[in-house]
Design goal:
Layout (H helix, E strand, L loop, with lengths): L7 H6 L2 E8 L5 H11 L5 H13 L15 H6 L6 E6 L4 E6 L7 H8 L4 E7 L6 H12 L4 E7 L8 H15 L6 E6 L23 H7 L12 E8 L11 E5 L5 E2 L3 E5 L3 E10 L2 E3 L1 E2 L4 E6 L10 E3 L6 E12 L10 E6 L2 E15 L4 E3 L10 E14 L10 E6 L5 E7 L1
Parallel strand pairs: 1-3, 1-4, 4-5, 5-6
Antiparallel strand pairs: 2-3, 7-8, 7-15, 8-14, 9-13, 10-11, 10-15, 11-12, 11-14, 16-20, 16-22, 17-18, 17-21, 18-19, 18-20, 21-22
């Protein structure tokens, strides 16, 4: 997979793109990922041999690339994706993590899980079928999760004779639908996942398409502006107090930067106490650095001795987050037991944990028609709806569409300790 000139340091420094795939049943999601891995030479020989043996055993005329991602026995038997399958590969330009998510409505929670950290979503549309209800559902979830980039792959173009008119018709239909969604960047590619047209290599059969192949787009799309770089947020995960003579007075606050940037000598505020101080140093492993950027895990030391513990947040005094115990949010329900309208749940938000009471179920979304259902307010497994909660202590948050890290939380059943829902704060 790597040649003798492989540079491990360069590999670690490469930019990582997380993307997810979604589509209706039999639209070719797993085949597309298999084709992407196969044509980019990102498959180990033993994996390829195993897939070739499975393909022959199943009577396939050619190698069945979908078997590279359909890892569960039930998936291979039914020819569908049930769970989220993660795959990792790299090209000389970028590293990738793929989440192959299910298309069935009963696996909506799996799609939400797989797509929650994605920079980009690939939605497949069968060229013979066009835009379906499931296409709307997947697009709504991508919009709800604020995935910045959407790539619409119109697949199976080989089965419609690579007809440009069919491609353009589906493109126009989808653009009309997307006007009701909060999607910033949409691109369209005509492909054949089975034959490889426009997946890794340009196709001679679509001379009317002058855009990039899917891999070219994935390698070059700009994701530097996708994260919030203007609102400094540092949820404290752990207080470091070494008991040793060498670090006798050391007191550091370890965590991951959830927004913006921090520099030594920056004035900061600590929530919830609102105490002011300045950053004395930023430590990364055994060295000090002058700047901590978004998503970087570091230890921050302050000039003043302030009582800080896990769950507190270090922020810029000029760009404060919302601080409240009354929170409106959209939830995707994961559990077989429906949401209890008067229930009490544990919530985890960044590094902070609290308990909450469900104050109101505002409405449930019909995500196949993109309409609100104000009559049926029962939120069961795979349902998405808007709720209002009251927490036992204030949370420090931003709206999810501003910061996906500080705008998200999970609900946990206090009796079973199961994660029952994911929430996106409005």
């Amino acid at each position: 997979m790597f040649d003798s000139d492989f540079n491990s340091e360069a590999y670690l420094d490469m930019q990582l793109l997380r993307f997810t795939t979604a589509g209706s049943v039999d639209d070719g999601k797993s085949t597309l990922i298999g084709r992407l891995l196969y044509d980019s030479k990102s498959i180990f020989e033993d994996q390829l041999e195993a897939v070739e043996r499975d393909s022959l055993r199943r009577g396939n005329e050619q190698i069945n690339l979908a078997l590279l991602t359909d890892g569960l026995r039930a998936e291979r038997e039914q020819g569908i994706t049930i769970d989220v399958a993660y795959r990792y590969f790299a090209t000389p330009k970028r590293k990738f993590i793929i989440a192959d998510t299910p298309g069935h409505i009963q696996y909506t929670r799996n799609m939400v899980t797989g797509a929650s950290t994605a920079n980009l979503a690939i939605i497949l549309i069968d060229a013979r079928q066009g835009v379906l209800e499931q296409t709307l559902r997947h697009s709504y979830i991508a919009s709800l999760l604020q995935i910045p980039h959407l790539v619409i792959c119109i697949n199976k173009m080989d089965l419609v004779g690579y007809d440009q008119n069919i491609f353009e018709s589906i493109r126009e239909t989808y653009l009309k639908v997307s006007n009701n969604l909060d999607i910033k960047d949409i691109q369209f590619i005509p492909i054949s996942a089975l034959l490889g047209d426009n997946v890794v290599n340009p196709s001679e059969k679509t001379p009317w398409y002058q855009g990039p192949t899917l891999l070219q787009l994935l390698e070059n799309i700009d994701i530097t502006a996708d994260r919030n770089i203007s609102d400094p947020r540092f949820p404290v995960q752990y207080v470091i107090r070494p008991v040793s003579d060498e670090f006798h007075d050391y007191r550091g606050y370890a965590g991951r930067v959830a927004g913006g940037q921090f520099h030594t000598k920056d004035e900061v505020m600590v929530l919830p106490g609102r105490q002011l101080s300045r950053i004395a140093s930023i430590d990364l492993f055994e060295k000090s650095i002058n700047e901590a950027i978004n998503s970087q895990s570091v230890t921050i030391r302050l000039e003043d001795d302030i009582d800080i513990s896990r769950g507190d947040m270090i922020v810029s005094p000029d760009r404060l987050p919302e601080v409240s115990q009354e929170i409106d949010m959209m939830v995707c329900w994961f559990n077989e037991k429906p949401l209890n309208p008067a229930g009490k749940y544990t919530i985890r938000h960044t590094s902070r944990e609290a308990r909450c009471l469900i104050r109101e179920i505002c409405y449930k979304m019909d995500i196949n028609s993109l309409t609100r259902n104000d009559q049926d307010r029962t939120i069961g497994m795979n349902d998405i709806g808007k709720i209002r909660i009251k927490t036992t202590k204030p949370l420090f948050y931003d709206a999810y569409n501003r910061n996906r890290l500080t705008g998200s939380l999970i609900l946990i059943d206090e009796a079973t300790h199961e994660t029952v829902a994911a929430g996106m704060i409005l």
